[in-house]
């Protein structure tokens, strides 16, 4: 058993709500003494635990439980008795830190609405167990490097204060940041929070944005202003916005992302300036371009391509279409519909494609134009001479229809 240190919990909460707590405070000699006392069991605690176990055993004998449950509870009590003197408090801080990391794996700290109730479901409660655990967690940047900002209207003034504490405790560790909010006014409080995040853009390893376009444009602009090489270690990028304007949503923010391997984006244009050289997974909701060859040429190492919709877009400037023989692509997922650009697979070869998933093959929407788009896909597959191991055709077409028979004969 580990005694709860109420003063430690108060110190942590006080730090989160204090403007002056931008860094981890050092323990005073008295606090250090309390921390050291938590490393070892006192002579009273084992005897107290033995009494509690004995009382539980006595109560268990009086309860009318099923045999299996009674046996299981008895085994649990025996285990607790044998491990009463478990030396967990004598473990080195390095080992204890690894144990705590296992408990908090993929556990984000929620900065936003409901902070007091849900901020780090595992991280914060662990700091309230004892001053020793608190000291380990507060001093370890990895516990504070996964932040989720979920805002409602209006953005509270306390949010930037909480955020600065978390950013200070994250040190220089690579960060994972998720921004989740819509229809939130870009007021001074929100701008202050986004400014603080933009100052750490060169530490972002994962950047997930499901936000309004004005907020996205603001944080990207500030990231270029505050950091010399923003997003230079970015590995995973997600951008989902509802608005589709005449300007590209990416701007010039991602022209140097040598470590970007996974991109999930709601809108992508063939003319967008983003580094896709090392990309392995690309998931696009709406692609604007006259040919997939232009896109694949930018992604020489791409292994998985997912595209929901495509069109020629607004740019009337003609783009030369290269001949692309892409040898890395293994998985292709797309939706078949009449709005696909004619000839979008022109000059594309995918010789090593093994998995194909096509959606939208419905009786109601699979018109002659959609069938032509599908015929173009089949022609590309035949031209590629690939050997498909898995083919998924999703829709409600009848198996005996001419279209479905044609599809089945192809593969």
Helices and strands, with pairings:
Elements lengths: L5 H11 L12 H9 L6 H19 L4 H16 L10 H11 L5 E4 L2 H4 L4 H5 L3 H9 L6 E5 L7 H12 L5 E7 L6 H11 L5 E8 L1 H14 L9 E5 L21 E8 L11 E8 L3 H7 L5 E8 L12 E2 L5 E5 L12 E2 L5 E7 L6 H17 L5 E6 L6 H9 L1
Helix pairs in contact: 3-4, 9-10, 10-11
Order of helices and strands: HHHHHEHHHEHEHEHEEEHEEEEEHEH
Strand content: 15-25%
> Mean of the pLDDT scores?
78
Q: Give the quaternary arrangement of the chains.
A: single chain
What would the principal axes of the Cα set say about the shape?
Answer: extended
Distance between the termini: 63 Å
Number of strands: 13
| Approximate helicity band | 25-40%
Biggest sheet strand order reads: 1-2-3-4-5-6-7-8-10-12-13
Largest sheet: 11 strands, parallel
Structural class by helix and strand composition: alpha/beta
* Tally of individual helices: 14
Uncertain regions spanning at least 5 consecutive residues: 1-40
Q: What value does the Rg take, in angstroms?
A: 29 Å
InterPro entries: LRR_dom_sf (IPR032675)
Organism: Gymnopus androsaceus JB14
Protein name: F-box domain-containing protein
How would you describe this structure to a colleague?
- The chain has 14 helices and 13 strands.
- The protein has helices at 6-16, 29-37, 44-62, 67-82, 93-103, 115-118, 123-127, 131-139, 158-169, 188-198, 213-226, 292-298, 368-384, 402-410; strands at residues 109-112, 146-150, 175-181, 204-211, 236-240, 262-269, 281-288, 304-311, 324-325, 331-335, 348-349, 355-361, 390-395.
- Strand 4, helix 11 and strand 5 form a beta-alpha-beta unit.
- The longest helix is centred in the first third of the chain and has 19 residues, at 44-62.
- Residues 1-40 have low confidence and may be disordered.
- InterPro entries: LRR_dom_sf (IPR032675).
- This is F-box domain-containing protein.
């Amino acid at each position: 058993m580990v005694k709860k240190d109420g003063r430690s919990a108060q110190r942590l909460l006080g730090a989160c709500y204090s403007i002056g707590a931008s860094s981890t405070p050092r323990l005073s000699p008295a606090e250090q003494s309390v921390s050291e006392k938590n490393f070892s069991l006192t002579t009273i605690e084992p005897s107290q635990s033995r009494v509690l176990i004995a009382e539980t055993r006595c109560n268990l004998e009086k309860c009318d439980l099923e045999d299996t449950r009674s046996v299981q509870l008895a085994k649990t009590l025996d285990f607790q008795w044998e491990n009463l003197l478990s030396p967990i408090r004598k473990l080195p801080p390095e080992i204890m830190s690894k144990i705590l990391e296992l408990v908090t794996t993929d556990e984000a700290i929620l900065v936003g609405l409901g902070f007091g109730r849900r901020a780090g479901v595992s991280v914060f409660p662990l700091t309230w167990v004892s001053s020793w655990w608190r000291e380990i967690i507060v001093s370890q940047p990895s516990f504070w490097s996964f932040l989720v900002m979920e805002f409602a209207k209006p953005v509270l003034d306390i949010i930037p204060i909480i955020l600065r504490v978390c950013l200070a405790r994250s040190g220089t560790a690579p960060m994972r940041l998720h921004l989740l909010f819509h229809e939130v006014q870009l007021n001074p409080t929100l701008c202050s929070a986004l400014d603080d995040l933009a100052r750490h853009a060169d530490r972002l390893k994962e950047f997930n944005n499901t936000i309004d376009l004005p907020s996205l444009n603001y944080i990207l602009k500030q990231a270029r202003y505050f950091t010399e090489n923003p997003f230079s270690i970015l590995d995973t990028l997600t951008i989902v916005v509802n608005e589709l304007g005449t300007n590209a949503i990416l701007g010039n923010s991602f022209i140097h992302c040598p470590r970007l391997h996974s991109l999930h984006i709601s809108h992508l244009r063939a003319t967008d300036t983003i580094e896709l050289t090392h990309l392995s997974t690309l998931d696009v909701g709406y692609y604007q371009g006259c040919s997939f060859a232009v896109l694949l040429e930018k992604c020489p190492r791409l292994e998985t391509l997912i595209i929901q919709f495509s069109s020629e877009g607004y740019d009337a400037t003609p783009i030369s279409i290269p001949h692309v023989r892409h040898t890395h692509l293994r998985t292709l997922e797309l939706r078949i519909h009449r709005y696909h650009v004619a000839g979008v697979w022109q000059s594309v070869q995918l010789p090593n494609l093994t998995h194909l998933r096509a959606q939208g093959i419905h009786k109601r929407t699979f018109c002659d134009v959609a069938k032509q788009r599908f015929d173009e896909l089949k022609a590309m597959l035949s031209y590629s001479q690939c050997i498909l191991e898995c083919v998924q055709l999703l829709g409600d077409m009848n198996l005996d229809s001419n279209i479905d028979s044609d599809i089945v004969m192809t593969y």
